[in-house]
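Morning. Coffee machine broken again, so started the prediction first thing and wrote up yesterday's gels while waiting. Chain of 449 residues, entered below exactly as on the submission form.
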Amino acid sequence: MGRPASPPRAGARARGRERAAGPPPGRGGDAQAGNSSADQARDCSVCGKSSWRQLQDLCRLAKTTCPELGISRNNLCIFEVDYLCNYKKVKEKEYYLVKWRGYPHSENTWEPRHNLRCAMTLKQFHRDLENELFRRSGRRPRARRRLDAALVDFLVQKAQQRKALQRWERELNAKRTHKGSISVENEVDLDEPPWNFTYINDYKLGKGITLNQMAVGCECRDCLGAPAKGCCPGVSMTKFAYNNQGQVRVKAGQPIYECNSRCRCSSDCPNRVVQRGISYNLCIFRTDNGRGWGVRTLQKIRSHSFVMEYVGEIITSEEAERRGEIYDQKGTTYLFDLDYVEDIYTVDAGNYGNVSHFVNHSCSPNLQVYNVFIDNLDERLPRIAFFATRTIWAGEELTFDYNMQVDPLDAESTHMDSNFGLAGLTGCPKKRVRIKCKCGTESCRKYLF
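Came back before lunch.
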């Protein structure tokens, strides 16, 4: 794995997974004969936070073997295909223009197909080619012997985009602390990942905002079967929110009080659901109807099951107004009011957030909002959790209503103290300008707000 110690030359024989191997004719793998790894290590210096692959590449560039990194004389000059740029057929023989990993396009070389051992890269190249030809003509494409300049330019951009998306996918999964994995897919356009988005797993506190941690916890041995003093929900004068399978059983609008870090129950307590994080494998994908990025589930989600939290930066309503003007100009909104009891805080997932940042609006959504309290009992700062309103099948897009309302007459009210209001006041994204809705459902209201 990695790039060659010297630029590749046409005719390099392929070897290994997703590689076009070396050494090429006239270039051997014994460039380090007589050199000691220990001697070389004394003068070794690399940039901070380099990945394992980058360190291997640096060794190959310096023509240095390194047992710790797995760089030996045998693989020092291995050539690796970055992506394929062009295609031609000459006298029934197929050739591909190869972009070698770690080298500029000026070092690209034409290679016969039998020299390449990168089946996945070849398959993806032809899939991209056929899809673009079909998009151009609207019919099944015929085989071509040469590609025009515009088509070549598209294939290069698509290959570069795919690498950027793969890199972003790795970054997202490296930062997540939840069980569910994240994949990324864009088969619609050439847009790359958002450059100004940082993945977080919990609220990021804005300037001047603090969270008060829980002072006490329950002493239950069986929080669901035999809750002591009603467990955490009972102390807060609310119902136990979940059944024994973790499905929410209280009406939308009622608060959920989970066990916290001071409780004596174990991590598998049935009253610990939202705090376990996302458990389903999800895919961030590019929508084909102008709604930007969206999220689909890769697994079946049972009705009333927890799906994800809406996290971001907690800011004041005054700051939200300022940022809202900026979002107005872009035609987007990531502001979610925490108006459970009063509207003084807002969650902004514009620059900091998790998968929920990419969940689209629908006038007929499959996700419902609930206010959840765990280690913080400040009624002004609930955690916003999404639960499935019905069974959601694998491959289905996840959506919630940006202007979700709960009828307070239909929601059971519960008094915690004299300041407690109706639990039906669920948070909804901050209303800004009149934005047209593109959800496409039969019940579409035509506008988001």
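The chain has a mean pLDDT of 82. Going to sketch it on the whiteboard this afternoon.
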